[in-house]
Amino acid sequence: MGPASREQIRSQLRRVLESAAFQKAERLRRFLEFIVEHTVSSPTEPLKEMIVGIELYAFGQKFDP
Alpha-carbon distance 17 to 32, whole Å? Predict the structure, then answer.
């Protein structure tokens, strides 16, 4: 069995996000979805704290690490 396809990864992500453990954890849902999508779309680009902070948590405001 080879590596999972992007569609398989996204399908599993949806299953995890729909699970009871993530139903009331919106912030964790957004974080997991963000890091998985980043990894799938840009596998060679490292994910850095600053990128997560600005793109996921800053909401148009200045991000202060």
Answer: 8
- As a 3-state breakdown, the chain gives helix, strand, coil percent values, each rounded to 5, of 65, 0, 35
Average pLDDT along the chain:
88
Angstrom distances, CA of residue 60 to CA of 14, 24, 53, 63 = 26, 24, 11, 9
- CA atoms of 59 and 53, how far apart (whole Å): 9
**Domain range list for the chain:** 6-57
Residues in Cβ contact with 22 at an 8 Å cutoff, skipping those fewer than 6 apart: 16, 28, 29, 32
Whole-model pTM: value is: 0.80
